[in-house]
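Appendix C reproduces, verbatim, an entry submitted by the partner laboratory led by Prof. M.T., so that reviewers can inspect both the input and the predicted structure.
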Amino acid sequence: MTVKSYYKNFISIYGALAGALGAFPFLSELLPEAWAQSVFPPLGAVEPYSRFASFVLAGAITLIVYTMNTSSFVSSKRGRSKSMWLVFTIAVIAVIVFFISTQAFVRGIDIHSAGKRVVVSVGYDRTEFARTTFKDDSDEEMLRARGMSEEEIWRLWTTKSIIVVRSLLFLSYLIFILSAVAFVSLSALFDKLGAPPNA
């Protein structure tokens, strides 16, 4: 099977699904702020680069799947089934981690004067300045008092905690997207190859 014939199989529902999943990072910019965080996590200054990296890697996954067309698992029904279940399980775990991380570390503040909602990610450990100034105030109260800018976020939460949280958000999101694209790509590959020669 050639690369050309493999990708021809993407001119179908497989291609539509893979394309939609791969484009998720950019589609989120077209959605309202309240919905956008579910499609791509707020990552501050590195967000544009993270969107591009997600898109490129999603495309690369389709090619990696193609290179598996001569692998031993492709020749058996059991191998194909196991590979699909493995990728699906990874995607589900990644979604769960992403959901939990979003609930724990993503904060949204309504700005009524502007009629919009601003969503940001924060750290898990406050700086000495934040502990002294705000004591038992909630994250939302601190953000309302200091503002939602990146400068203020880095002033209120420690550098390490912000980096760890945003890395977790991005990696869990990325693993989900790549696993989902891999699932669709494997489906396209198996469909193109036809029934496996071995049971």
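The longest strand covers residues 106-111. Additional entries are available on request from the coordinating office.
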